Amino acid sequence: MMTNSHNYSFFGQKSALFIKSSSKNEPYIFFQCIKSKNDGSWEKPSQGEGKIIKLSLEEMIMILQVLEMKQSTWSTYHSFKEQNTQINVNWDNKKERVWFNIGEYRKSLDIAQIEIFKMLLNHMIKEKVKFATSGVFNKNQYNTNTTQPHNRSPSNRSVNGSKKPNRTIIREEVISKGKSSQRNAIDDIVSIDGKLRRETDKALLIQLSNQNEIWIPKSKLHNEIKTEIDQSQTFLIEKWILEKNKIAT
Fold it and tell me: pTM, whole model, 2 decimals?
């Protein structure tokens, strides 16, 4: 059974990558990137921070080609509101991690994350080929708030019309229908130092730096956790959980 929407996040210590598809009837997905600030907080998409790019079916397939090691690297160039963004996906030299470079944002995925990414892309490509190419579309699906027509084909010309050799430029449009859905990524994630005291199947008991202890559901943690008891480490936790338990952030 195919679901209508998808939203999955890959968090690291300093950066995060979200994969978003608001409808199986749309022949594209969104990548959303955020990074941590110097004070330990994360960029907030709701305040216009971070980076969002729209990827076509063709681009999804090319990324999958890299993840499946059918080619070592793939790159393209997006133009949106006179801002140009270079996008590159490549394996590291040891073939242990894949790097996503989207403008100034960099995020690497380990082997387990790569497998999840591959399964997501395979699934979304299949459902979008089936439903987004059926010829039945929502009449508002391609309404945009720009004056340029929707351009599905690559272009090798820059915004000012000068030709750039060996570079594919994809012109993005703002999709009015999906604008709010692009902001649905987690806005408030904070970094907390502490120690793991106990672990169950669904939660961790964390001792904070002030010696207070708090149970945190694993689903609300957004980084890899060291399983050794009483080892100091950093936890990326959804802010509302801490506020609910009156933990200062």
Answer: 0.61
